[in-house]
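Page 47, continued from p. 46.
Same chain as before, 171 aa.
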Amino acid sequence: MFKKIKETIKSLRPKTPQPDPKVSIRPADIHDILPVTLLWAKMTEEVFDNFTKLDKVELDKFSFAMADRLRMPHTFTQIAEDKGKAIGFIHGYIDIRPYGKPEKIAFCECLYVEQEYRDGEIAKKLIDIFIGWAKMNQLPIEFLTKFDPALINFWDKYQAKPYSIIFRREK
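Result:
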């Protein structure tokens, strides 16, 4: 009887595509501008609650900026793919501050994984790779993320603590 109840409950759960064991994470290159731009647009709309108004001009600005950044040696961008389709990315760079300590940090400004892949380990793998890159460069790390108290537990796993909040106001 319990087996039948378990099967019934399981059948009621929404189906989500599981990443193929062949999900790969690799450095992004200039050919990834379009998929990274599309993922960034989804991230921006989801995370920043339409505070940033996306239009063709904004998408072009991001694409051109990312094309420039991918050529810079202090930039770190990885893309996650499932069967050749971009499903997530992480983007950061070494930020050299004109004042304040620490002077140099590994700053992660974008982390996004498609919703249907969030139950897996993809975000964790992307973050772990970024942390490894920062350690290789002996840098402390800052992650830019949405303000959500529920995320404190998530980031605590990476020994990352909130230290600042930016408040915005439209004109």
